[in-house]
Amino acid sequence: MTLTTSSYQVSPISEPAPGIRVPPVTDWRSLPAEQQPVWPDPALLEQVQDQLTLQPPLTAPADVRRLGSALAHAGAGRAFLLQAGDCAEPTGTAGVAAVRGKHRIISQMAEIISNHTDLPTVTVGRIAGQHAKPRSVAQETVGDRTLPVYRGDLVNDAAPHPEARVPDPRRMLTAYRTARAVINELHLIAHETVSGLLPHTWEEDAVHAAVPTRPYDGTLRSVIRNYGRTVKVNGSWRRTGLWTSHEALVLDYEQTLVRRDPHTGEHYLLSTHLPWIGDRTRRLDGAHVAFLTQIANPVACKVGPGITPEDLTELCGRLDPHRRPGRLTLISRFGAGLIRERLPVLSRAVRAAGHDVLWVCDPMHGNTFKASNGVKTRRMSDIHAEITAFFEVMTDAGHWPGGIHLEIAGDHVTECLGAGGPAAEEGLTRAYRTLCDPRLNDTQALLTIRKVAELIARG
Fold this sequence. Notes:
Blueprint: E1 3-5, E2 8-10, H1 42-53, H2 61-75, E3 80-85, H3 93-97, H4 99-117, E4 121-126, E5 139-142, E6 145-148, H5 170-197, H6 204-210, H7 220-225, E7 230-233, E8 236-239, E9 243-247, H8 251-254, E10 258-260, E11 267-269, E12 274-277, H9 287-293, E13 299-303, H10 309-319, E14 328-332, H11 339-352, E15 358-361, E16 368-370, E17 376-378, H12 380-396, E18 403-407, H13 442-458
Parallel strand pairs: 3-4, 3-18, 4-9, 9-12, 12-13, 13-14, 14-15, 15-18
Antiparallel strand pairs: 1-2, 5-6, 7-8, 10-11, 16-17
């Protein structure tokens, strides 16, 4: 059967589209998996996984399908994707306490984009599950100690002590509970936002104007439930919430939250709405790619300068065998110095292979370097240069530059150098609070999104 949600068709993975060769399904557990923790107690891991399997899912298939519809509109140039949030979310009360600050700044960013461009903004947070991080090295030096590297709160602790860095599978339960609490908070925020819009006269045509082909219902209930978009009310664009996303990195955790939808027979990863895999875990013969091929969610993949056109088109063929609009998002992360060289070749190859993907720019990860005091940072000038290059390359190639992917703090941190932050490296330590990579503070996030809005309007 085929379940249709607006223009986005969700077909069971077992039914190939006519004329399309679908790679055979391979059990991902038999394939090499990069960046996985080595749990010291396999019996404890099995107990934790059994507990997680019995927990309620964090998202719902219907909402995942609605995100797919929204991403299809973004891919067609009828909307713009804003994906932003923490580099590595803390678990526990600290993770829940940070939700409102992130939602506030992402909402402001979305309204800037929509009010400058008159396009709806699809908002997806790096939130409610971004608790694990891939790392370039297995060990790090903190002071005079060499320790196992911190891999995110889902795996171990950032405290600079050997015992804190031992992977503990019970942390997966804490991560799940934190994500659940964060999602509950997002639902509360969505209710509050819609309640605040009601005095402005909520009308169905306001919702229809927000997304021309009507993938969302006009009822108040669905607006509250189907969070994640910017809608037009009395001529102004307003936010109603966030979809969630995170890197599907630790497969021992992710597999426990796969559920079968009885209405379609498809399997969904219900730890999040939009899972992605990174540049370190995208190997064609690897477990992460095989895992994503077997779920019906829209999925994303980071694309760095090391990938060849041939490997990228093969990757697209595995992740998007049906060529479904909204299924696959490619997030470019080349660095300001390489994007003009690498992106045109790769985007041409993907188009020639017939894949209708959504291209998104991550201007953060390719521009990271260590300051003289040893902390990682990024320059605003590099971030803006990569964004500008992305828009120019996409426009010249006739592609829609469909989104932006940012790491932001939702706070007044001092982690990135330049406009809106410290002018010199000495200023980084004033409020350097990230658990892993440097994030934009509120001022820098707004400056960056104004740059994005200007580039969209110019194109």
